[in-house]
Amino acid sequence: MNHKAGLWIDHRKAVIVSGSAGPVTVTTVESNVGEHARYSSQAGYPTPNGPHEGGGEHAYEARFGHHLNRYFDQVIARLGQPESLLLFGPGEAKLQFRERLRHAKALANCAVIVETTDKMTDPQIIAKMKEHYGMAL
Fold first, then answer.
1. In this predicted model, what pLDDT tens digit does every residue of 8-21 receive, in sequence order?
2. What CATH number has the domain bearing residue 27?
3. CA–CA separation, 112 vs 101, rounded Å?
């Protein structure tokens, strides 16, 4: 089967578009990750209670990373096993997801193409995937 997929992804949601000879299917996965806060440059400065080594920041970054990995694993589980994947989106999430894909044995033979795009509506995502793979609109 010549299964192809398109995935628009950011840290908040992923839109999976799958298709082959028949109609395409669209699946949305919400992350519930929330905003990725940035700590100020003074987070590592000493405090009256002793040196502050950024324990809160490190713990936050670790929690954020674990939550992202769970989100990415949910997306990978819903992708199935496409032969080809068009991976696109506006920020770093697509690159982080590509890195997570390298650990997914089920998708080891999947060809991945990465593109940067802006935020898109579901119809725009479907159209981009169809255009990329030369499917009938």
1. 999 999 999 998 76
2. 3.30.420.60
3. 9
